[in-house]
Amino acid sequence: MRLITVSGPPSSGKTSVIGKTIEALEKKAIELAVIKFDCLSTADELIYEKKGIKTKLGLSGSLCPDHYFVNNIDACFHWGLKENVDILITESAGLCNRCSPHIKGILSVCVIDNLSGCHTPKKIGPMLKFADIVVITKGDIVSQAEREVFAYNVKMVNPKAKILHINGITGQGAAELGRLFLSANDYQNLDDKKLRFTMPAALCSYCLGETMIGKDYHIGNVKNMKL
């Protein structure tokens, strides 16, 4: 089974890109499924279900959504195998630019939009830096010069990534992403697989539910500013 991880900042167009890519693959005799990871609630899974795509939803609640992803991805992979899925796509919540769900050997995609600002690529971190493919969206509502500057800044952060421009409304460019999905590595398990980048160094008292403010309550892995 081919596993594809799709990540990106909130509202960058991840669900639209996945949806249009699935449409581009409809003529292929393959079984697809999507697992949507989010925090508290989402209706994105309904978009996939309307397309007849097998879908599972994972809500992390009070936990970091990307930590929740790592805790559950192995079980999700085996679910895909059980369902005889050819391509299993995971969509991250995209709430932490420091986290990254990318796995070594697994095709990884980062979706980022032109409207986020030309300096945004430098702020996203490993989610962008370690992706195999970077999809840039919303190029139809900015100028050509803005598109070129944004793509250049993406390339500066991740020079090895393949950059695709996809329109989440019309689907223009999605066929190429679909072709890359089909060329992804095929695995029967995730044994010995590792994340491409470590999750944020934690555990502090606030991770465990502390709400009081003050040095007396700063316990665990904490970092103080130099003021």
UniProtKB/TrEMBL annotation:
Residues 4-164 form the CobW/HypB/UreG nucleotide-binding domain. GO terms for molecular function: GTPase activity; nickel cation binding; zinc ion binding. Pfam families: cobW (PF02492). One of its GO terms (biological process) is protein maturation. It comes from the Bacteria. This is CobW/HypB/UreG nucleotide-binding domain-containing protein.
